[in-house]
Amino acid sequence: xxxxxxxxxxxxxxxxxxxxxxxxxxxxxxxxxxxxxxxxxxxxxxxxxxxxxxxxxxxxxxxxxxxxxxxxxxxxxxxxxxxxxxxxxxxxxxxxxxxxxxxxxxxxxxxxxxxxxxxxxxxxxxxxxxxxxxxxxxxxxxxxxxxxxxxxxxxxxxxxxxxxxxxxxxxxxxxxxxxxxxxxxxxxxxxxxxxxxxxxxxxxxxxxxxxxxxxxxxxxxxxxxxxxxxxxxxxxxxxxxxxxxxxxxxxxxxxxxxxxxxxxxxxxxxxxxxxxxxxxxxxxxxxxxxxxxxxxxxxxxxxxxxxxxxxxxxxxxxx
Length: 319
Fold this sequence. Notes:
- By secondary structure, the protein is an all-alpha fold.
- The protein has 9 helices and no strands.
């Protein structure tokens, strides 16, 4: 049910139901993967090597980081910035899936391309993600700021953060990191949707369902996880640059975590990371990112398809 498919009943689901399914999918997925997201952000922002052999490194592994955050900041720290993150996920899910549905249907009706082609899903997935990013970018910046800060907190509430950031850094602060975000999100989301569709076809060929059974939920989860991992590996460095740029002007809140840097833009950020941290610096936090990508993308498609099916069955029962 992901994207327009004229051969199935998914075309009978209303656009409103598509948006609601996307929102609910984002909400549930965000609540489950928030701890991994926080650890990933901490890794991406750390200048020091992620190694136990570096005495200045605050974090060097997923388990070690988890224990340290729990010890120093408490269990609630794993959900720092959860409110803006949930607003981000709910809005992003609605706009992304609705845009993808509309774009694939438009491609089917206005061109000779099949709406289910790999290239169509890549293009429509990338464009739908860009639309969703523009809609919710301020919440992404707020989420990153909350996840980046230690104790004592610089921002205690969402309202305080918004007012303080606006007064001290101006309105454009809410769109910091937008350039690498758009550069990264287009291919990342494009690969997500296209590989998800392709992996589902491969799964159906490799694991044919028994007569009368579909194995749909397992297939959606497995194929979504695979698509998330592949997409993340192919586009990861741009995600790291985005996070570094989003905390620009917020360096004072990270002094307890180790070294801090200031970047004038995307190219300057890439040059500094390469010069000071080496090429491996481009992939800091990759391990939790891959784990998060597998879980979040798998769950995102799993819940989306589940909610779409639920809406369709309810509509079918009423008719």
